Structures are given as C-alpha cells and as structure tokens.
Amino acid sequence: MSKQPHQSTLSKPIGTGQASSPASVGRRLWPYLKPLLGVAIAAVLTLALVAATEAGIPALLKPLLDHGFGTSGSPIAKWLVPAAVIGLSLVRALAQYASGYLLQYTSNKILLELRIKMFERMIHASVGFFQRETASTVINAIVFEVNQILNVLMGVLVTAVRDSLTVVFLLGYLFYLNWRLTLIVAVLLPAIGWLVSKINRRLRRLNRESQLLTNELSYIVEETVGGYKVVKVHNGERYEMDRFGEMSRRLRGYQMRMVVHGGLAQPLTQFLASIALAIVVTIAVVQASHDQTTVGGFVAFVTSMLLVISPLKHLIDVNQPLQRGMTAAELIFGLIDEPAEPVGGGKPLDRARGEVEFRSVSFTYGPGGRPILENVSFSAAPGEMIALAGPSGSGKTTLVNLLPRFFDPSGGQILVDGVPLADYDVHALRSQIALVSQDVTLFNDTVSNNVAYGQKADRERVEKALRAANLWDTIAALPEGMDTLVGDNGMKLSGGQRQRLAIARAIYKDAPILILDEATSALDSESERHVQAALETLMAGRTTLVIAHRLSTIERADRILVMEAGRIVERGSHQQLLEQRGLYAHLHQIQFQQNAA
C-alpha cells in the first residue's frame, strides 16, 4: 500500500487558524440566530424584567424604613410595601422561568443546527481531511466542543443582559438617591474593565493550548483502545500509562494556570469594592450628621451598592468560560470552514459501459513532495480484468484511489467512457464503482443494512449477495439472521467473515466498475475458492481493477501491470510476464518458494 501523506503536506488542522473574538463569533452565529430572532428578543426582554425587579427591592426599603416604623408610621407603608414585595417576587419568578425556557429553546436549536452543519461538512470533506485529523479531534469538535458554544450562549447572554441591566438599573437608582456617592462607585467600573482586559489575553492563549492538549489526550485513549491487542501482547500497559500520565499532568498544569489567572479578577474586584464601600459609609455618616440623608435613604443606598457587587462579580466570572468558548469556536468554525471535496462538473452517469483510461497520470502528495505516480498510462476495455502487481509502496493503492476521485491527479487525465472524471458529478461517478479493500469497514448495524449500505435493503437481493460471497449459511445460523447487529466494525464476526461481508456489499451494489484491493486476503483456502468463483461470475461484463500481493489470485487476469516506484515497468499476461524473467517473474518465484516451504 502506498504511503500516506505527511500532515505537513496538507492543510492546517482544524482550530489552528486566526483567533476568534466575541464579535467574530457573533457574526458567525448570526445566520443561525436570525430565524429565532423573535424568540431571542422575548428572552432578552424577560431578562430585562428580571434585572428591573432587582432594583425594586432597595426602592421599597426606603419608604418602609422612613415611614413604616414608629408610632406615626404610615399605614400605606406598613401594608402596601409588603404587598409590593410579594408582587415583585412573583413577577421576578415568572420572568426568570420564561427567560430560562426561551434561552434554552434558542440555544438548543442553534446547537442542533451547528452540530448538523459540522457533521455535514465532515462527511463531505476531502480524503486529505480524514488522513490529517484524528477521530478523537473530530469527535471532540462535533460532540463535545459544540456544547461549549451552548454554554457561552447561555452563560454569557444571561450575564451580559440580565446582570448588565441590573447594574444599570441599580446605578440609576443610586444616582437618583445620591449622585455624589454614586460617582465613587462609577470610578470602579473603568478600573475593573482594565483589569479584565489584562487577564483576557492570557486566558485565551492558555485555553487554546489546553484544547490542543485535550485533543492529544483523547488521541492517546483512542490509540490504546484501538490497539489493545498489541498493548497486551507487548506488555505495553506501563508505557501507555506513562504516556497518558505525562499528558494528563501537562493538561492539569495548564488548567491550574487558567484557574490562577481566571481567579485573580474576582478577589481584586471585591477588594476594590470594599474600598469603595468603606468610603461610601464614611461619607454617608457625615451626610447624615448634617441631615443630608435619611436612614431609609442610607440603607437603600448601601443595599443597592451591595446588590451591584453580585452582578459585577458575575460579569467578571463570565470571562473565563467566555475565553473557553472562543477557543471552542475556533475548532467548530474551523471544521465548518473545511473545504468540501470537488463535486465535479455535474455530468450525469446512469450506468457506465466500464471503459477506463489513464493518460500520463502523475500524483504527488502536496507541493514539493516525492512523486507517488509518474506518467502512468493504460486503458481497460469494458469487462476487462486488469491486475496491479508490485512491491509494497509501488503506488498500486494510490492508483486505484484516483478512480473514485479520493484524490485528483497532479498531472494527466483519467477517463471513464471517454469522459474526464472531473466532468462527472462525483456522486454519479462513485455510484458506478464498487470497492472491496483489505481494510474492511463495517458499521454497527444489521447484516442486511451493511450489505445494502447506501441503498434501501432488499432482503432477497441481500440473501443472493450473501450466498454469492459464501456467507449465507453463517448468517442464517445467527439468532436474528440478517437482522443481527455485527458490532463495532463487525467485531462479532471473524476476519474472514468480515471480508466476505464486504464482498457481499460489492456484489449487492452491482456496479459496472470493481476495485478489489486484496479482497481475499483474510480468507482461508476453502472460503477463497468459493469467493473467487463468485467474484469471477460478478466480474463478467464488468471492468475490474485488482490489487493482489498473492500473485496466484491474478493469474487469470486479462492483463497484469507490474509497478515499481510509481511507474509501470512491465505489462502482459501471467505467462508473458513469466517468460520476460523480469520483476514479476522474480516476485512470483519468491512467493512460490515461500508457499513450498
């Protein structure tokens, strides 16, 4: 199999572009928010109502303290103020419930749209994307990181609207009560803003580095789970524990640094507020001694001032999750911005004749990379079987990967039925091709749905395909037959059964062009005999490209192309190539001696 491209030859990993800001994230989220604008506005109005009720509490204290106590207390103050407190609490409770529901509705709807958009872009990404990104990184982005945007939508919006308006209403009431004292409180706000901006930049960098480490940690888990047999056979538990522990400790270090920097804002804010409170109390006492304020006015002012501290604290505390959300946004929108693979020229293709031609095809992974294919030319007539042979790394798999446009050639042209591949709609092109690879992929679904993958399952056709692949007796013996779940990547089946199920999928598709990449590599001799017979029946009238390291499986090919270092160095029938005594004859002799031994 040809070498995979090195990561540096491909585009940058998702989430490593330009840093996001709240404004840029807002612009990106606007298309998702626009259809829900009415609901969002209603949520903001209910939050504003919650904020307004916050300032109502100290406003009710002033008449109660000034006129509700003592023998000459006002009956209105004694009875109406408590009633107003109950009414205010009821309005506040209803507004809080309504705002919570409306915000959850809006944010979850946006979350749904983002997640679907991310999965859609991922599923239509180029093959290079899947070779560049680890599964854990993509899973984190689609399943977990998108929730960070949800948290930002909820937490930041609630804080920005409710707590900001609460501060505005309370400051307005403070200014109404005593504008001189209010100026002292107002001096705090620029100081706090300056403090937050200093901490912001540091937090964002730490969040971004922490996210990269989280992805690396997930990848270690992914590798260990996927390679558990190798880990156990080679006693690699200690190695994996050390690797996981080292990465976890690095991640913990970054998280603790985030805690240190994120936690500085709150105590510093409280310290500044305590200084202001001390000054206010001192000045208020002086004013009271000169009859410039009343007891009710003083208590209402101090209460309002203390109530301001809590929403200010929330505004400061939102900084850390906000920066975490900005880091998540880079990953999310990086995936959404991932270029989709080319869709082609749009030319339809109902059923191809199966004529395939490679004209001086070259291929290189990335600019300046080593050529994988150089000036490869050959043609296959409809129904012809072309076999590709050669040592590992000669470019055989890369060559067949160009036919379904997993990659586009760096030079030359590939034609199907005389038309360049780029002129066809890519989905129409791929509907003409069935692929059975040495790397079998099965889905955790029923046997029937795996065989008919991508199409509606016809049980009669599924059974015929399973019989042709010499697998029907095995499937029929299962408790639920064709409706049996095969498990994660077919873990409930043996290696040979998995390979035959993949062959049954190709038989079911009934495509005019077949690509068989070591399609019988996992079969025992008896199964291989049956499957070879089924494949020969299937290949009748269909163009087939076969890759096989076991040369005995391609002896009956119409032509054999022998590849070395990305070039076709020999071509002919099996007997012709043996008579040439070249590379093919050498490979055949080596395998014959190995089989004899």
Task: Let me know the largest β-sheet.
Answer: 6 strands, mixed
| Count of separate DSSP helical elements | 19
CATH topology tier name of the largest domain: ABC transporter transmembrane region fold
Shape: elongated
Overall number of strands: 10
Helix content: 55-70%
Average pLDDT, all residues: 79
Stretches where pLDDT falls below 50 for ≥5 residues? Answer: 1-12
Distance between the termini: 26 Å
**Order of helix and strand elements from N to C terminus:** HHHHHHHHHHEEEHEEHEHHHHEHEEEHH
> Over all CA atoms, what is the radius of gyration?
35 Å
Q: Provide the CATH top-level class of the largest domain.
A: Mainly Alpha
CATH architecture name of the largest domain: Up-down Bundle
The CATH superfamily of the largest domain is known as ABC transporter type 1, transmembrane domain
Please tell me the total number of domains.
3
With strands numbered from the N-terminus, the spatial order across the biggest sheet is 6-7-8-3-9-10
Keywords: ATP-binding, Cell inner membrane, Cell membrane, Lipid transport, Membrane, Nucleotide-binding, Translocase, Transmembrane, Transmembrane helix, Transport
Main location: membrane
Subcellular location: Cell membrane
Transmembrane segments: 36-61, 76-95, 149-171, 177-196, 259-286, 298-316
Blueprint (SSEs and pairs):
Layout: H1 22-33, H2 37-67, H3 75-123, H4 127-132, H5 135-177, H6 179-226, H7 228-233, H8 237-289, H9 295-317, H10 319-336, E1 356-364, E2 371-380, E3 385-389, H11 396-402, E4 411-416, E5 419-420, H12 426-430, E6 433-436, H13 447-451, H14 459-468, H15 472-476, H16 495-509, E7 513-517, H17 525-539, E8 543-547, E9 559-564, E10 567-572, H18 574-580, H19 583-596
Main location: membrane
GO molecular function, one term: ABC-type oligopeptide transporter activity
Keywords: ATP-binding, Cell inner membrane, Cell membrane, Lipid transport, Membrane, Nucleotide-binding, Translocase, Transmembrane, Transmembrane helix, Transport
